[in-house]
């Protein structure tokens, strides 16, 4: 729901610069800045907002370490998706970018709870600099902070100079469309190998339990990149040895009811051309892997086929948790 809230604040800002009768943007001298926590998420957000705002003639671009923009491009762009570090660099410069920074009307900071982590000081500096700019120019800039996990939201609201009566919105678990359940399982072992073995056993049992129930899919998060491959291969081995492999396979048939669906056959063909050997080995067994060390195109394939249901179990690192 956070992206939709960001969308509403963007539309609220656009209303001031839009002629509804003639369906055109009146003045293009305004900027909306969306600060995403990581580069991987920035490109996803650009796609999302570009698609949804294209009918209004809004230009959305990414400005991160990977994607540079020329001055002319920045002038043409209405909405810029960036990372805290990149926006920090842009706003530090006293000359050159001044006009660009002064045309900012809306600053959206996603995952504002990062204030509590290593990158917190960067976000603090961004907010402080924005508030100072408002004082100096006497032109208001709206700051919106979004977070899904924030217990001390009143402290953050005061830090952002939010009016607690009219500008602070808090949604607890009652607003969840899908209720969340948590289960903790303690795992012991005489030594490290035994503990790992027990962990694998429990992981497999839990995964199997979920995918047996209807058409459920499972995400398994691990700590390290190489653990994604190890866990994936381990799950396949368990499934083979215990005769459970059928539960992991994609079963949808084509309209004739005889052959596997065309989309799935096409997916298999695409994956078979991947340079990632482990991904090629695991995919036919309904298991995928995802981590930041993989090529961008492989990660995109995995995300696409997981959302289509071709991958039943996806073993991944925390990078994907941000996107989820």
UniProtKB/TrEMBL annotation:
<dbReference type="GO" id="GO:0003676">
    <property type="term" value="F:nucleic acid binding"/>
</dbReference>
<dbReference type="GO" id="GO:0005524">
    <property type="term" value="F:ATP binding"/>
</dbReference>
<dbReference type="InterPro" id="IPR014001">
    <property type="entry name" value="Helicase_ATP-bd"/>
</dbReference>
<dbReference type="GO" id="GO:0004386">
    <property type="term" value="F:helicase activity"/>
</dbReference>
<dbReference type="InterPro" id="IPR011545">
    <property type="entry name" value="DEAD/DEAH_box_helicase_dom"/>
</dbReference>
<dbReference type="GO" id="GO:0016787">
    <property type="term" value="F:hydrolase activity"/>
</dbReference>
<dbReference type="Pfam" id="PF00270">
    <property type="entry name" value="DEAD"/>
</dbReference>
<protein>
    <recommendedName>
        <fullName>Helicase ATP-binding domain-containing protein</fullName>
    </recommendedName>
</protein>
<keyword id="KW-0347">Helicase</keyword>
<keyword id="KW-0547">Nucleotide-binding</keyword>
<keyword id="KW-0378">Hydrolase</keyword>
<dbReference type="InterPro" id="IPR027417">
    <property type="entry name" value="P-loop_NTPase"/>
</dbReference>
<keyword id="KW-0067">ATP-binding</keyword>
<dbReference type="InterPro" id="IPR050474">
    <property type="entry name" value="Hel308_SKI2-like"/>
</dbReference>
<feature type="domain" description="Helicase ATP-binding">
    <location>
        <begin position="1"/>
        <end position="168"/>
    </location>
</feature>
